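Objective 1.3, modelling of assemblies. Example input:
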Amino acid sequence: MSGITIKEINSEPLQNPISVRGGRGLAKRIIPCLDIKDGRTVKGINFESIRDAGDPVELAILYSENGADELVFLDITATIEKRKTLVELVKRIAANINIPFTVGGGISSVEDVAILLQNGADKVSVNTAAFKNPSLLQQLSSEFGSQCVVLAIDTKKEADGEWYVYLNGGRTKTDIKTTQWATEAVSLGAGEILLTSMNNDGTKNGFALDITSVLSGSLPVPVIASGGAGSMEHFKEVFETGKADAALAASIFHYKEIEILALKKYLSLHNIRVRL
Amino acid sequence: MVAIIKYNAGNVQSVQYALQRIGVESIVTDDEAAIQAADKVIFPGVGHANSAMQYLRERQLDHLIISLKQPVLGICLGLQLMCKHSEEGNTDCLGIFDEQVKFFPTSQTADQKIPQIGWNNIYAYHSRLFTGISDNEFVYTVHSYYAALGVSTVATTDYIIPYSAALQKGNFYAVQFHPEKSGKVGELILKNFINIS
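Predicted structure (tokens):
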């Protein structure tokens, strides 16, 4: 009798992987974003008016318990105390939550990144500083690995129908197309793209499916779609049509218009793989 | 006391915080005597296999790790360094496990990107690390290289191909995913490791 293979002895009986709880493989991620100023959570509506939505650590714990797959903290503090308060906040977050988190906002050097990672951040996101000095992406990926380097791009569709890169929180237009910058950034070491559509952000009319799908289909790294989430269906669309690997939203979660667990159950019912 | 090995790869702080959350005290150290005296040793790591092995060899931490008799848990790069060889920088590793570490093959479907970043399932458990964990639970994972399936495989994950999510041989345990970032499931796996007697 030589019909028994090692596989059958050492592991569970072979079965159709698709039959097991919706199959196996990487899940689509739901990522609440917390904008931080002076240690408090804020949310810019179309990058302008801001409203207070609570203590970041409290909110982070709540989100992680409710099924968030990851968290993003964007620090918009512009004072000289910024680094110190941000590091203290990162320590408190890392000590209190058991899911990964990304920190961004004004990060411009290897030293900035080293101190955030040492204090418990899993990834950092860079935006304007990387655009102005693309070698920063190379330095960060060779020093810390591209898995912790997220490139954030604020993008806007102009009258010519093309998507352009904007800097400084959306205040400064550039002549560079988003696909061009994203492709270059990935070749330099960006491990993930966080794509925010300024046309959609704050509208609650849905994500920018076209540019999300173009980037996700052409880049070898994950794309996180951001800007425009207003309903559960919008998340379904951005995963199905937009081919996003993850979707990020802020105010609809902060103001409890959509609960993360309910959203993930909805997506699962529509055959989108999520962690439940 | 749990000793977390300090070296040039890591996000060791996250592991220490995770242990704190389950009520376990730990020290982060590269001191030989302190590591040998610990009840449990955790060998974490995020980074590059070649530079990490070089660092370990320069400090003779390589000999120390393979000589440990208490339960040892490798995490992520820690798992890969405990294998025989890694394609990352063509690196000879510690050789505790016979499994080979390879770069993910190119996926046939465009949606499987490298590195794998996010939550994936673990299944086919053969270790007390997974006591009380249901089949196909999700864990958080970030990597471009994987340990192939082999005799030491005690949990599997499918991504492009099936690979070793966990390895075990004697007192040596290792997981490719990050239990310190894997929510309640990860906390239970860490507790299971701490409770090994």
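Chain B has one domain: 2-194.
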